[in-house]
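User: Hey, my collaborator sent me this sequence without any context and asked if I could get a structure. I don't really work with proteins. Can you help?
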Amino acid sequence: MLMLPAVLTHAQVGATLRLFRETLDRAAAAGSGEAAMLTVDGSTLEQFDSSALAVLLECQRMARVKGRAFSVQSLPKKLQELARLYGVDGLLQSV
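Assistant: No problem. I've predicted the 3D structure and written it out in structure-token form, which is a compact way to encode the shape of the chain:
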């Protein structure tokens, strides 16, 4: 599971994606199975901009490339609303 940082704006994108990539690689190295669920948890997210949506979509893409299932949980209501506004809320559904 990847816990999103409290702040996720453009400045944190690179570090957050690196952390997800490392989490994904560790899961693969542990041999947790091809269908293992990789979850991103947004419960600690307090300050964000639209970059947070880009991070979530890229995390989903990276998981799919590795053949992993992906889910998002506990996103702040305002980020869910932003996803709806941009029309990407359906893309962030658990797969």
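In plain terms: Helices lie at 13-29, 51-65, 77-86. You can pass these tokens on to your collaborator as they are.
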